[in-house]
């Protein structure tokens, strides 16, 4: 491997010429990763390097195929636009849902090379999930003509809290068949590549600040609203795991002290009033046709009163739980993800109402609330981001740069 | 100033002899700050330095008066115990309460040199508070025979959320007379030393991991339960401020949707059911004698049924709000501070009950709940800790080491 490829190596005698050259190169690559394509003049401004140094580094990187260059004009003057190229290495992101499984293949420049998803049978076991994921990964590699040896690793998102002391799914979660299993070891043994596992909501949060439009946000709460309700937290620019790794469990905020029993053992939790399972249950009464999440979205968009009411009640309850969370950790941005994102303002409006009603005024006024623009790909993209971060290819100045997944 | 005093300077050419000596010295002083008095052998183990290096550094530091040594025995062998001495510089910690003001003077080794508190009139203005604080600080300096020039700075704790964008107390807090005032500038102009301000609950949290018994805890929630209810958060080893600085507002968690109006404008907030003001109001009905917080503690300890019931109801509500917070940030330890700490298990038991009832099982099982052992001094000690941290004298491996107060 030539010196120019060895971008993660900043060791060597400090102050030596080669160490300095590597550091400058690393700084320039970081600027390209965080800022996308830029002219040499912009890169010089952003890195503080001289234009001559930038030009020399760009020449070497272009010769090695790490970047490509293209003539352009900037303020009427001739300029050279520099773009980061994938270096051929690939990160796999695997999102295991309760009812679906998605795999993405991402390039080192955070390009999406290939992706696919399949339905999972209810009550699937960890072995089922692994087999389906491995097969899907293999077929994506084959379709893309990608050698397995190009795989940097796989990130795996699981829809349940993970006890970081043991690396296993916590009892009482949404995947009872997966409890107590060494998921990381199992995937690693089968895939024969480095594997990182994390909770899906954490990966959704990571996706917002790495692939999504919130790269400048240091404090972000990502709410996954689906058959379960959980949140991932980016705090002070890094994913936050707390003491044992079980964070963001706001699906179990008590909303109605005398409400129905929740799978966690408590009563009247947010999940019992606002999950998609509850919406489906409410809308299935008195009808023989099965209702699914996509129908909820379609019927709401068509203006059906009962569906709108169910969503409104759920939204206000979600907003109330979010208000209490925002009162505690004062996020800059709250992003809502999951299968209902297409509802847009139909869901956002009642959530915003609940948030404003229950947050202290300054929190209600300063918290930005929006839908995830990454749709149902957020978790898989977050999983791929973990792999890139672990390979030293994170976008700097984002949570990814400090990722410490299992 | 001799080289040996210049402990914060780790600059200079890297790798040079003098830079290395300073770094080793710094490491040894850090070990003494975090671990207290230790033998030379223990210091060598903790720092990774050779016993000869430790011995040389200790000799130089002792000659300069930075440490003192005393012969002792360890495992039956002769040893030399090394103790950090104050270097003559002093940090002031000022805690401004709604009804009291406390000042502590702390030495650079985290010794408490002097402290005193006075009552404040209700509705006091920021100017009142400043004058009383400045006078109390002057009298403590005079009593201790301490030159004003020895003051490193003053930390000031305020019982209300502080908007870090402006450095002012947020509207709707517990000190309406202080809203919108540049408290830091006012104190700095009067005291003529560096001033750092922060919310009292944040400082209480900082005190737990710096002066208190929780120095090894990376994720701690400090709940101040008084006429207001607020929390300070130490997350991943640092005080957490969120987006605009308003965190830990769990006093405004909705407990009773149809409850009484709270000063924040919402209904049925935790403060309206569990603050000491509410307890006083409940216990004052049908009696002409005024009730105060101290009487609540005394009457509860004497076993008076009505008082015990009021505390029990408040405790369960506090536990419920704490459960939702713990579900979100998964703290290792929750510490309760404020004027009711002497209640001990009488208050802790219902709080624990509410916490277990409303937290997801793994959170309820792994969260340590205890009373603050620092009593009503926590906030002032935290304020002094900020000053020491800013002077590079923080205990390392604690939140203090990363403090970033206003």
From TrEMBL, chains A, B:
Matching Pfam families: HTH_24, ROK
CDD domains from the UniProt entry: HTH_ARSR
PROSITE patterns: ROK
Residues annotated as signal peptide: none
Coiled coil: none
Family: Belongs to the ROK (NagC/XylR) family.
Name this polypeptide is given: ROK family transcriptional regulator
Organism encoding this protein: Arthrobacter echini
């Amino acid at each position: 491997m030539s010196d120019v490829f060895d971008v993660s190596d900043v060791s060597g005698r400090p102050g030596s010429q080669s160490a300095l050259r590597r550091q400058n190169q690393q700084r320039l690559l970081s600027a390209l990763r965080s800022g996308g394509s830029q002219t040499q003049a912009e890169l010089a401004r952003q890195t503080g390097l001289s234009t001559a140094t930038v030009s020399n580094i760009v020449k070497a990187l272009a010769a090695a195929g790490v970047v490509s260059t293209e003539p352009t004009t900037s303020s009427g003057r001739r300029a050279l636009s520099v773009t980061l190229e994938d270096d051929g290495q690939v990160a796999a992101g695997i999102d295991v849902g309760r009812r679906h499984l998605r795999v993405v293949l991402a390039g080192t420049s955070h390009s999406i090379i290939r992706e696919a998803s399949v339905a999972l049978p209810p009550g699937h076991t960890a072995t089922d999930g692994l087999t389906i994921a491995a097969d899907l990964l293999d077929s994506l590699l084959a379709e893309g003509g990608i050698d397995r040896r190009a795989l940097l690793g796989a990130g795996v998102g699981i829809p349940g809290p993970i006890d970081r002391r043991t690396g296993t799914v916590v009892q009482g979660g949404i995947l009872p068949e997966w409890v107590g299993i060494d998921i990381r070891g199992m995937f690693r043994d089968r895939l024969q590549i480095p594997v990182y596992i994390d909770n899906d909501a954490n990966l959704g949060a990571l996706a917002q600040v790495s692939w999504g439009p919130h790269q400048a946000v240091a404090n972000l709460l990502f709410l996954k609203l689906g058959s379960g309700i959980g949140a991932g937290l980016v705090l002070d620019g890094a994913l936050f795991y707390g003491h044992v790794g079980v964070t963001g469990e706001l699906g179990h905020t008590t909303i109605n002290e005398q409400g129905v029993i929740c799978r966690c053992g408590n009563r009247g939790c947010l999940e019992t009033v606002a999950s998609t399972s509850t919406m489906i249950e409410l809308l299935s009464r008195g009808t023989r046709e099965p209702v699914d999440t996509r129908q909820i979205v379609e019927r709401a968009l068509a203006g059906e009163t009962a569906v709108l009411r169910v969503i409104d009640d759920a939204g206000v309850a979600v907003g109330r739980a979010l208000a209490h969370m925002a009162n505690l950790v004062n996020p800059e941005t709250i992003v809502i993800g999951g299968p209902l994102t297409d509802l847009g303002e139909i869901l956002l409006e009642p959530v915003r109402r609940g948030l404003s009603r229950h947050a202290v005024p300054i929190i209600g006024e300063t918290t930005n609330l929006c839908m995830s623009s990454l749709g149902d790909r957020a978790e898989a993209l977050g999983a791929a981001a973990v792999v890139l971060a672990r390979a030293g290819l994170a976008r700097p100045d984002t949570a990814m740069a400090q990722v410490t997944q299992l």
